[in-house]
Amino acid sequence: MKVVIVGGTSGIGLATARRLAENGANVVIAGRDKDRLAAALAELGPEVTGQTVDARDEKDLARLFSEVGPVDHVVVTVTGPSGTTPFRELGLDHLQAHVSGKLLPHIATIQSALPHLAQGGSITLVSAASAGGAMPTTAALAAVNAGVEAVVPVLAVELAPVRVNAVSPGVIDTDWWSFLPDAARAEAFAGIAASTPVGRVGTADDIAKAIEFLIDNTFTTGIVVRVDGGARLGSPQ
Ligand SMILES: NC(=O)c1ccc[n+]([C@@H]2O[C@H](COP(=O)([O-])OP(=O)(O)OC[C@H]3O[C@@H](n4cnc5c(N)ncnc54)[C@H](OP(=O)(O)O)[C@@H]3O)[C@@H](O)[C@H]2O)c1
Question: Is there a cis peptide before residue 161, judged by omega within 30 degrees of 0?
Fold first, then answer.
């Protein structure tokens, strides 16, 4: 089983690569930064291979998938800009950066992978709890992640028998949060953990487990699995 993880050099994608490789998959990871790629490959060991790719660039994606050859499953964990912005200060250039940084790479990766994807294969995307979360200052994140979720049922039908699913993470401790200094990040995570039913923020492997499930379960398509520690339900008493 060959799996390509675009965005697999860090965080959720890297944890997914680690989990799938440990369970015997032939894993290929891809991201833009060559040093980050090299560090990820060194950590994952010789069974995992990788390439640089910029998923905002269709030609670069086409080159990646033609070099990788036939593939069984594709996972997209590309992230756009991090941080949040009050809506009144949300410039269109910043909104555009969210669209071109996350929504377009997700869709472009699917299109580029399709000619190489096995009929019984799958595509797994990663959205975010901001889609439908009604959290002030997250309008750009919400719009883009709702866009990712919206294509899931459409493509599950249009591309069948290829299966198409997504995971929607809550707050996960990864480099996405590196825009906050360490102390501010620890304080933010403590506050989020206290207001989350399971009492903690998530790990990258919490999401990797859900991605692995969606790859493995051939009776599952067109769904978004929410892995957020119950945060959407509100604070515990
Ligand atoms: N962490 C959270 O709290 C959280 C919550 C909800 C949803 N999510 C979503 O989960 C997904 C993974 O996020 P993460 O937390 O694992 O972030 P991360 O640790 O920053 O990893 C993001 C990965 O995407 C790659 N990437 C970014 N832009 C790319 C591009 N144009 N082409 C190819 N690769 C690209 C990065 O490598 P390069 O920079 O080297 O390209 C990196 O490998 C994202 O879609 C994010 O929105 C995260």
Answer: yes
pLDDT digits (tens, 9 = 90+) for 24-57: 999 999 999 999 999 999 999 999 999 999 999 9
Distance between Cα 237 and ligand 1 center (Å): 33
Torsion sign (Cα): 112, 113, 115, 119? negative
**36 Cβ closer than 6 Å to some ligand 1 atom:** yes
Domains for the chain: give ranges and CATH numbers: 2-228 (3.40.50.720)
List the 224-227 sheet strands across, edge first: 49-52, 26-31, 2-6, 71-76, 117-126, 163-169, 224-227
What is the pTM for the complete model shown?
Answer: 0.98
Q: Which atom of ligand 1 is nearest to the CA of 31?
A: 34
- Determine whether the shortest distance from the Cβ of 202 to ligand 1 is under 6 A: no
What is the distance in A from the centroid of ligand 1 to the CA of 66?
Answer: 23
